[in-house]
Amino acid sequence: MLDNIQRTAAYIKSRIGDFEPEIGIILGTGLGGLVKEMEIEKQLMYANIPDFPISTLEFHSGKLIFGKLAGKNVVAMQGRLHYYEGYNMQQITFPVRVMKTLGIKMLIVSNASGALNPAFRKGDLMIIEDHINLQGHNPLVGVNEDALGPRFPDMSEPYNFRLIEKALNIASDNNITCHRGVYVAVTGPSLETRAEYRFLRIIGGDAVGMSTVPEVIVANHMGLPVFAISVLTDEGFPETLKPVSLEEILEVASGAEPKMTQILKELIAGIDA
């Protein structure tokens, strides 16, 4: 793995020159618009980067974008990878390891997810303060690379408490409805049944999705502070459950994206280099 990471990072460095990213960003389903706020310096297609997995989803563009956002050097993944696409956990999290090798000091993750907490509504935002991994696998299984992180990384604070509080204050100052809660990661790609939604709420979930947790585990393994935010695109309430389509999910994500973008821009602007 180390050889692949270093080879990929070396190729990217040869294409971006002396640009040094401080912050890595993973943009979730329907949430690629944050890139419009960037002063873009370089874009690389995943397909052209050695050893880099390629997003198979038509609504994920599959670009690694380098530039400035809120005065900081960032690298953004416009299009993420999912377990249900057939990739293994090491492939899904490979881009995070590459971004760390390129020099990022923190990771920001966004996703589209379904609301489990009946106090939440679609179109709201939820800052992730903890997670439950129900994907049946962990990206750290296998021989540990000590150069990347410890065999048994601590997960008592997988999401940085200081960043959570800052983001909640930003949301309040901008009159944005923004909750904090527990994210449950499942494999997908099928959406949940009524019984599954009920189960996920009982075990403490506030939102459910099909991503994020593998990348967060690997970021913690490498000592990267993490901030993660969900756009709640549908409501998984067993009592009133209705069918939902991908088109509806993308529409809600698009409508809520400006609120998420506002929070992330102000959060990034306030982060010390």
Automatic annotation (TrEMBL):
**Would the keyword DNA damage be found if you checked this record's keyword annotation?**
no
Task: Report domain Nucleoside phosphorylase positions.
Answer: 23-269
Lineage top rank: taxon: Bacteria
Among InterPro entries, the record links this protein to: Nucleoside_phosphorylase_d, Nucleoside_phosphorylase_sf, Pur_Nuc_Pase_Ino/Guo-sp, Purine_phosphorylase
Enzyme class, broadest EC rank: transferase
What EC numbers are recorded for this enzyme? 2.4.2.1
Any one GO BP annotation for this protein: nucleoside metabolic process
UniProt keywords (A-Z) are: Glycosyltransferase, Phosphoprotein, Transferase
GO CC terms, sorted: cytoplasm
Q: Name one GO molecular function term.
A: purine-nucleoside phosphorylase activity
Q: In which pathway does it act?
A: Purine metabolism; purine nucleoside salvage
What does the UniProt record say this protein does? The purine nucleoside phosphorylases catalyze the phosphorolytic breakdown of the N-glycosidic bond in the beta-(deoxy)ribonucleoside molecules, with the formation of the corresponding free purine bases and pentose-1-phosphate.
The record's family statement is: Belongs to the PNP/MTAP phosphorylase family.
Q: Which NCBIfam families does the UniProt entry name for this protein?
A: PNPH, PNPH-PUNA-XAPA, PRK08202.1
Q: What is the protein's given name?
A: Purine nucleoside phosphorylase
Q: Taxonomic lineage per UniProt?
A: Bacteria, Pseudomonadati, Bacteroidota, Sphingobacteriia, Sphingobacteriales
